[in-house]
Amino acid sequence: MSRTVLLLSAAALLALGALALGLPKPPPVLDTTHTVATPDEEAATEVLPWVASSGWGPLTLEGKLSGAWVQSGPSEAFAVLEVKAREPKEQRRVPANVALVIDRSGSMRGQKMDDAKQAAREFISQVRPEDRVTLVHYGTDVTVFPATLATEYERERMYAFVEGIEDGGSTNISGALEAAAEQLKGATEFFKVSRIILLSDGQPTAGLQREEELFALARTLRGQGIAVSGLGVGADFNENLMQGIADQGGGFSGFLRSEQLAEVFTRELEQATRTVARAVEVRLTLPPAVHSVEVMGVTAVREGNEVRVPLYDMAGGQSARLVVKLSLETEASDDPLELLVATVHYINVETDRPAEAQVALTAKSTEKPKVVRAHLDKDVRVHAHRALGTQQMRAAAEEMKRGNRQSALSLMGSARRFFGASASALSGDIEDLDRTRDAYEHAQSASEQRDHARSLQIKSIKNFGQENAY
Q1: What is the spatial distance between Cα 147 and Cα 180, in angstroms, rounded to a whole number?
Q2: Of 1, 226, 270, 275, which sits most exposed with the smallest number of CB within 10 A?
Q3: 106, 396, 397, 405: which is closest to 234 by C-alpha?
């Protein structure tokens, strides 16, 4: 006998007992057909069509629900949304208004400082004469190379500025970001793309020091038309801070390895100068049938019946996927019920004007569990299982950083069980997780453990459908 039948039978018996005793009816049982796979159920085979936005802007939006029907009463469902940036008809490089911000605090002494300076030289070698460039280095105080077009003469001056950097002092990240922004603000109306690239080990000791304050600063700069990327230097850099700054600033995050400096800056500058949409944000409008919502793996803020999800600036060919878990309360209906309206808002870089794309997702509601189960979407179910497992992976990465080996291994085991619910589709994820678990179990040093934690964290970001991590 299936779990669903057992639950419904139990609910019916409780209701009859309550009526016989004159007691209030028990609350209805939450239906989890869309979100929980039972051992005895047959695999979903249906593939529902994507609901696509209309229009010809640089961003498109598609979405669909985890099934064509939901169970009446309280239930759960998933939605998957895909934001995609069209490749422009003509590949044209957009001149950038960009600032490189370099941490020179005492914690950067040695190899980290050498790597940061080499990264700055690589950056200078890749900018072009049409780019407007600012350099900033900081410890307790902040030193600025004023914004200028990157002509050959000015690039030579920039190289000399970088050679003169000496480590020392506290880590005033906020002061450096504010100084860089002041340099960029004077030209944001003339340049379609403005960006700050922060190089740091992410250990603030002066100015704003709490993560929440630095995230708020990144959000403010993004609202002023300046994206912020965070690139970590040194094996012990604060990944959560640098990633959070990038997430809130609409930029990219990554780890600067000595042997990959050229590759990282090539990708960062290509992304910036090929941007087709900036200030990208998905807004989810929730109808009365939706009681709560969880956007899995990304930052989301709810205000009344609207949930806002900031995304990164997008170049042609880039995309972002959101997996959304919905808690519902519906009445049986053969007419489609609107369960989610999603709108992506952004600035079209070519026209420098606001634009949007929208989809509305609907499903019917029934009292018949078999109808619900017969119309589940197999692809959305795979996305859901990957997202649920990835939540456990991300938690495992945090436990690795804390040195909690057994807890990390247990969480990786939980992740594997979620992936196993769609084992054929997620076989690659399972194999990758098994390799990471085996390597972590045999890691001999704290440095090796940090590397595995970082690898798992980057894998988590990509599994959640985000393309803003190197």
Answers
A1: 9
A2: 1
A3: 106
pLDDT digit string, tens, across residues 309-318 = 999 999 999 9
d(CA 244, CA 457) in angstroms, rounded, equals: 13
Alpha helices in 239-330 (DSSP H): 239-249, 261-273
Q: Give dist(CA 281, CA 6) in Å, integer.
A: 43
For residue 424 the two structure tokens come to 């054929």
Which pairs with CB-CB distance under 8 Å and at least 24 residues apart come from 410-419? Answer: 412/436, 412/437, 412/440, 414/389, 415/389, 415/390, 415/391, 416/389, 417/389, 418/385, 418/386, 418/388, 418/389, 418/392, 419/385, 419/386, 419/389
Query: Are 176 and 141 a contacting pair, CB within 8 Å?
Result: no
What is the greatest pairwise CA distance in the chain? 91
**What is the spatial distance between Cα 363 and Cα 337, in angstroms, rounded to a whole number?**
5
Q: Which residue segments constitute the domains of the chain, with CATH numbers given? A: 23-88+278-376 (2.60.40.1170), 96-273 (3.40.50.410), 380-463 (1.20.120)
- 302 with 293: CB under 8 angstroms? yes
pLDDT of residue 317: 92
Pairing of strands 290-295, 275-285: unpaired
| pLDDT tens-digit readout, 261-291 | 778 888 888 888 899 999 999 999 999 999 9
Categorize the per-residue pLDDT at 233 as very low, low, confident or very high, splitting at 50, 70 and 90: confident
Q: Is residue 309 a contact partner of residue 279, using CB atoms and an 8 Å limit?
A: no
- Check whether 194 has a pLDDT greater than 70: yes
Q: Which string of DSSP letters, residue by residue, matches 403-469?
A: T-HHHHHHHHHHHHHHHHTTTTTTHHHHHHHHHHHHHHHT--SHHHHHHHHHHHHHHHHHHTT---B
